[in-house]
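Anyone else keep sequences and structure tokens together like this?

Example one:
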Amino acid sequence: MSRPLPIALVQAPPRPATAPLSGFAEEVEQLLARFPQTRLVVYPELHLCGVDASPAADKQLRDAAEPLDGPRSRQLAELAGDLGVWLVPGSVCERGDGGELFNTAPVYSPDGRLAASYRKIFPWRPHEPYDPGDRFVVLDLPEAGRIGLSICYDAWFPEVARHLAWMGAEVIVNPVMTTTADRAQELVLARANAIVNQVFVLSVNTAGPVGTGRSLVVDPEGRVRTEVADSGVTVLTDVLDLDEVARVRTFGTAGLNRMWDQFTDADPPLDLPLYGGRIDPGRWRPATG
């Protein structure tokens, strides 16, 4: 028995923040007309809040910010409900209750509601003006399994992927807006985060001329299932079998390594001076269900 999750990752340039959402809705509708079995649609970071590289970019981001119960979110929820899909429209600029500016990845459900949202924990300092989020977020897709959310630079911090996997994520969705020369390193990190946590990783980057593209899907053993070799506008499709995660964790990566079963009940806790905490063997294994 398998748990298939048909996905579509859209490598596209950002839309202007002032562009009407009706155009985005038409784009998603056309996508699903081409790939009607898709259950999860993912766009790049800040896809709906496109800004230029001018000194006014910070102001543009703040001008694009809305609360998560604002009109943009309501329209996106309605779109997901009308189309009957799980929709991650990239990340958006969120205005917090106290006036904060968050870089937030919302997830909208096939029944037309905001099912989850994740605020980027590691903004790219010193270049991004966002306030950091304070929690890790996972979400159950009832027909498939559990996904975890991260945004772009979060992938450089192993704590994020580790916590998402520990919370039961079988897929890490990582919308990206990389415009710089470090995309090559991000491709390595996508594979590394998949390998050390035995999860799928979906990394979808912005297309040119703004972004450097090269989106990819990585399986729980670190193999690249499908990828885009350039920065062109394209759609990356795949069908993930989330039972692969359980298989790899049961039999080991390459039939060998079972990192989530590293500790025995007799092993003492390991202090972690960097965090002022420790690894407790009794809390090591991931959540299930």
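And example two:
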Amino acid sequence: MSTPEIPDVLVPRLREEPPAQRAFPWDRSVWEPVVHDVPDAADALRDLPDRIDRQCVRDVVQANLTRDWVLGAFVPMLIWGGPQPRRAFFARAMLTGVARRGNRDEPVDDSIRDRLLEGARRLQEDGAVAGFYYLNNEGHVKHLGGAFFTKWLAFTSMTGTIDGPEVAPILDKRVIGWIRENTTPSEKLMTTRTPSYERYLELLDAWGAPYGRTRTQVELAIFELTRDRPAE
């Protein structure tokens, strides 16, 4: 399959230095009840600054990648992905497997610790596609879709910088919509299929190579171009 030309609007972004993400606030009163019975996540949130950015969350995630502390990595990543009350509700749904009112009283499914860590391990050993396949199939965490588990893969692969060549790029609805609208023929990617994520990596590699940009630097450039869109 041929790769579409680099969209014209993306070229100036790839010629510039990668943008630094602006820090944004999050509401402790919304999120702390979500982790009232998750000690590692509760500790992580107490230490989290009032304004967070990609670098801050990267540091928290990398410091908590053990079984006893992994939810202290996972929940800050979810906050970074969307700090609104609706996201907090679905964070609790991911922790418990229950997406209905009152799920704060449901017990946390402790097995998600192993699945999250296994997804990160497969990514490290076999690459981003292998990590995606696992979390999209036998390692699937209920209510954790591709738009958010690719965020997990991204932060767990940030072993150096936040945008190095080893980092797995995020694939969410913002990026999918932008790529669909700016490629000819139109690339119709999905967050639910491993071949689609693999195709996404091919696009980012092809578009970034002429400018010496990593996959994640291309993803960040695309994200900046979507800032005027509604949130996913």
